[in-house]
């Protein structure tokens, strides 16, 4: 299986401080305990460490940001995240007025390893979106780094828009698939675990 092909219009990250290299949480709204520290970085000097509480719904604590986008436009959203817990992060991209989920995912992961998620989605009739990243469990810690949103003009992934994942070289890989349309997300999810699998340089990729 080949990776989705797409042409980047502008490689500029549309998110402010997606790599946290300002040394603080500039551009992000906090929900929970957030520390921007060097020990949370995958690359560069800084990353975000998010700690959730033990109360009701505290697994949804994390960081989020709101931004303007172009309607009916394809985008690529990517991030690196890491946690010692088995539960995955929760990733939301919400539509205008934040009343509808354009994308909602609970990606599987390998505890203790950095995982990279990449999502391809269409903004549909939304001209403003919220990107929300949650810890995914109560009383847990998750690291975030290299959060990026880019506009694209072409995406040829079969069956619609979807997502891929890679992991560190010393970890097993996991993969999953969602088809995303302008109406929302149609679930077409497959998961798999492999040792030492590579596709086009990705540590693991398996699409259903």
Give your account of this protein's structure:
The protein is an all-beta fold. Helix content is 0%, strand content 44%. It has strands at 6-8, 29-31, 33-37, 47-51, 62-68, 74-82, 90-94, 101-105, 115-122, 128-134, 141-155, 163-167, 173-175, 178-181, 184-187, 192-194. A hairpin with a 6-residue loop joins β7 (90-94) and β8 (101-105). It is globular and about 40 Å long. Residues 155-162 and 172-208 have low confidence and may be disordered.
The helix fraction, in percent, is under 10%
- Proportion in β-strands: 35-45%
The total of beta strands comes to: 16
How many whole angstroms does the radius of gyration measure?
16 Å
How confident is the prediction overall: mean pLDDT? 77
- What does the overall shape look like? globular
**What quaternary form is this?**
single chain
Broad structural category: mainly beta
Query: Number of helix segments?
Result: 0
Q: Describe the biggest sheet? A: 7 strands, antiparallel
The unreliable regions are 155-162, 172-208
Distance between the termini: 10 Å
The helix/strand order is EEEEEEEEEEEEEEEE
Write the layout of secondary structure elements.
Elements: E1 6-8, E2 29-31, E3 33-37, E4 47-51, E5 62-68, E6 74-82, E7 90-94, E8 101-105, E9 115-122, E10 128-134, E11 141-155, E12 163-167, E13 173-175, E14 178-181, E15 184-187, E16 192-194
Antiparallel strand pairs: 1-11, 2-5, 3-4, 4-11, 5-10, 6-9, 6-11, 7-8, 7-10, 9-12, 13-16, 14-15
């Amino acid at each position: 299986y080949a990776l989705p092909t797409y042409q980047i219009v502008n490689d500029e990250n549309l998110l402010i401080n997606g790599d946290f290299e300002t040394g603080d949480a500039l551009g992000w709204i906090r929900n929970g305990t957030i520390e921007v520290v060097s020990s949370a970085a995958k690359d560069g000097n800084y990353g975000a460490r998010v700690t959730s509480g033990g109360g009701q719904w505290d697994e949804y604590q994390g960081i989020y940001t709101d931004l303007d986008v172009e309607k009916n436009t394809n985008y690529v959203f990517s991030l690196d995240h890491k946690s010692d817990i088995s539960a995955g992060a929760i990733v939301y991209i919400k539509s205008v007025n934040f009343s509808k989920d354009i994308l909602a995912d609970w990606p599987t992961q390998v505890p203790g390893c950095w995982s990279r998620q990449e999502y391809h989605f269409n903004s549909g009739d939304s001209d403003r979106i919220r990107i929300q990243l949650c810890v995914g469990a109560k009383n847990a810690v998750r690291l975030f780094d290299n959060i990026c949103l880019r506009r694209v003009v072409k995406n040829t992934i079969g069956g619609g828009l979807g997502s891929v994942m890679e992991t560190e070289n010393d970890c097993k890989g996991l993969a999953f698939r969602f088809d995303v349309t302008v109406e929302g997300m149609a679930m077409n999810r497959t998961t798999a675990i492999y040792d030492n699998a590579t596709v086009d340089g990705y540590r693991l990729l398996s699409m259903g």
